[in-house]
Amino acid sequence: MIFELIMLVFAFGFSYAVIFAITPLAVKFGLVDTPCNRKQHDGAIPLIGGLSIFLAVFISVIAFYPLTTQVVSYLVCAGAIVILGVVDDYRQLGVKIRLCIQVVVALVMILGSDVYIQNLGNLFSFGDINLSWLGIIFTIISVIACINAFNMIDGIDGLAGSLSILTLLSVFILMLLSGNYAFAYLPLIIIATVAPYLAFNLGIKGHKNKKIFMGDAGSMFIGLSVIWFLMVSTQASEPAFRPVTALWIIAVPLMDMMAIIIRRTRKGMSPFHADRDHLHHIFMRVGFSPRRALSVILTFAILMSSIGIFGEILQIPEWIMLALFIVVFVFYALALQHCWKVARFLRRKNIKN
Description:
Order of helices and strands: HEEHHHHHHHHHHHH
Largest sheet: 2 strands, antiparallel
Strand content: under 5%
Helix content: over 70%
Shape: globular
Distance between the termini: 62 Å
Radius of gyration: 20 Å
Number of helices: 13
């Protein structure tokens, strides 16, 4: 336990040190986020949160963690996705380029980790669904979906970071409960490196006027890390938890992305078209402050993760957990649609007044 504590303190401290070290460089070389019609903040904010998190994770894992083939594969793929994110933060790459590189990273991760999503569990009470070689295609789609889900949800201070901590903590709890300790402390290392970023991003006491953003590098790194943990946890010979449980512990980013894609497709728009119709934007249009919106969304995410964890502990049949998830998503999508209409009505009323 002392060794693990030293490891986490090191990860936390190194993340802090990297933030202070590279912030001036980000400002000097223009790796900053400036306000525009979709981004409402004051001044140019350094986009180094994701880079600091990855560097701290990389050094901490190299220093303290057994470097198995799977771990090395994860670090290589994470490094590639962070480089993609940094370039995208700096140059604004096109959607096709980002997707192509994400596909390549997904394939490398599958080959390097020697694991992919092939067993979906007993979702319909007729026995396990085995995808065989189709699982490779399903895994690639899942990797892209998870990366972009966390990328899309990163819209207000603290949201992507808080949700990543909640998801990774849920993974750690499920690994611990199952006795699957092979990768159990890796999620905690990432949590320890995300904590300093949150302190700066939220302007916690002692960190005001030192704001930084996670950037695409950070949100894509978190998304890749989450899907990797879900893969090695659900597809191992002795899985830590069932695939359906994974839906619950990433419910908010997943539901937000699915609802947005459905709405954009119905409008004849590209699923990757940027807008301000995400859950957090709608809360703020209704009148919530960013902090209050963060609190409400995080509370909902905690509820969803808790349902998933308790469903796993109680071994509630997978088809029931899936059906319940679908019901929650339908209500979520409908509520989001009507909230958006209410927000639009209130905005028009305010303009007229």
